[in-house]
Specification:
five-stranded antiparallel sheet, 3 helices, 5 strands, elongated, 39% helix, alpha+beta
Length: 85
């Protein structure tokens, strides 16, 4: 699985923490595009959790919601969110 999420972070910050094999593309002073790969959307969501920013396009966002649900269930907090649509 291969995706290029747009991150609302400067290129230098993302490049410092991006996983090996990924490519960081400068878009402007406050945004970059991160090209990375993983075997699943959950894997990509896990990698994107490194960055505290909004994500686009919708597929990584949906994958993050799915992981939140799974992690809440694993943690057994009693407050697990409903699964994403």
């Amino acid at each position: 699985m291969h995706r290029q999420p747009r991150l609302n972070l400067p290129t230098g910050i993302v490049a410092r923490w991006a996983p090996g094999g990924s490519v960081v593309e400068h878009l402007d002073d406050d945004h970059c595009r991160l090209t990375l790969g993983a075997w699943s959307w959950a894997g990509i969501a896990g990698l994107l959790a490194t960055f505290d920013t909004e994500l686009r396009p919708p597929e990584p966002v949906q994958a993050c919601r799915h992981l939140v649900h799974r992690w809440a269930a694993i943690a057994d907090t009693g407050h697990a969110p409903a699964p994403p649509p």
